[in-house]
Amino acid sequence: MASIRMERLRKVFGKVVAVADVSLEIADGEFMVLLGPSGCGKTTMLRCLAGLERPDGGRVFIGDRDVTDAPPATRGIAMVFQSYAVFPHMTVRDNIAFGLRMRGVPPDKVRRRVEDGAALLQIDQLLDRYPAQLSGGQRQRVAVARAIVMQPEVLLMDEPLSNLDALLRLQMRAELKRLHEEVRSTTVYVTHDQVEALSLGQRIAVIRGGQVVQCDTPGRVYDAPANRFVGGFIGSPPMNFLDATLRRDGAGAAVEVGGARIPLPRAPQAADGGEVVVGIRPEHIAVQPAPSPDGVRARVVVLEPLGPQALLTVRAGAETLKVTTPVEFHAEPGAEVWLRFDAARIRLMDARTGDALAG
Ligand SMILES: Nc1ncnc2c1ncn2[C@@H]1O[C@H](COP(=O)(O)OP(=O)(O)OP(=O)(O)O)[C@@H](O)[C@H]1O
Ligand SMILES: [Mg+2]
Description:
With 359 residues, the protein is α+β, with helices and mostly antiparallel strands. The two termini are 38 Å apart. The protein has a six-stranded mixed beta sheet, sandwiched between helices. The chain has a five-stranded antiparallel beta sheet with strand order 13-12-11-14-20. A five-stranded antiparallel beta sheet has the order 15-19-16-17-18, with no helix packed on it. The chain has helices spanning 42-50, 92-102, 107-120, 136-148, 166-183, 194-200, 218-223, 228-233, and strands at 4-13, 16-26, 31-35, 57-62, 65-66, 77-80, 154-158, 186-191, 203-208, 211-216, 240-249, 252-257, 260-264, 275-280, 285-288, 295-305, 309-316, 319-326, 336-341, 347-350. Magnesium ion (MG) is lined by residues 42-43, 82, 158.
């Protein structure tokens, strides 16, 4: 059993609360992503799990064992660090074997595990090279191989792809996903890249200011962000937000936004006349040349073809919105258009708190 449980975990550096009473459970074999902006406490959380940082409050459990005060070597974990330091004076083989030798694993077993690990990461042709003779991506794979040959119950990875170029990131991302399907270690993966999080995570914990603001499947985090921060952090381009007023009457609920009235399929928990924010993703807006009662009037700013689709920037009142359109779509800057929101995909938020409204 290698589930992980953090209970009200807290870590403070002077006046900075890096981890603010976080409670989070990660299931045995799960791939959990910690996602959040720079400085939100991701690395600190991981270091507390690893035992490299002593928490100021709360407990950490691995399996049923309370490891809060246990030294790192006894926790059954392996970690790939943000600066994936490999030893420059050792060959790839010796780098990967290092931890196993430290643990006193017999030499023939070390050799077998190193070769298996290298094959899994497709660096078996490189075992006799030194790190200086490798590309960044190959060096990265050495760091991952070094961690997985330990056959850890828990694998912690801190932005392992951050030093790679875009294409290599894409390849390594798929490789890491495949690797997890083979190795099945309980994995905690830290990133500030939302695409990486959506791609890799079975669940994503979105972190802000040392707190988990939402923890859910990639689909839920994307479709049903818990608040404005999550909607604005996930998605490229992110969710659009518009100020609106909620209307409720005998016929049901609607939002009034930019002169349009959009009927809602479900009534949210907010009163008639309530100030709300409409959250809508770029792909859930259709652009029309003619007005309609539920169409928000807007003016075209710019149209950018992006290969499989185009990205349209429009202004609706004081707001700038992004809309994805088919590549065939054409519009001149300055043209008037009407935006129709897919009402079922609207995420309503409280204008004051930014929290999503139930309903
Ligand atoms: N050893 C330390 N001493 C003082 N402050 C620290 C220390 N380590 C981290 N911090 C502070 O704690 C906060 C969280 O840092 P942390 O490294 O966990 O962030 P992060 O989410 O990993 O950021 P990044 O994406 O930039 O790596 C930051 O404000 C950081 O400045
Ligand atoms: Mg970090």
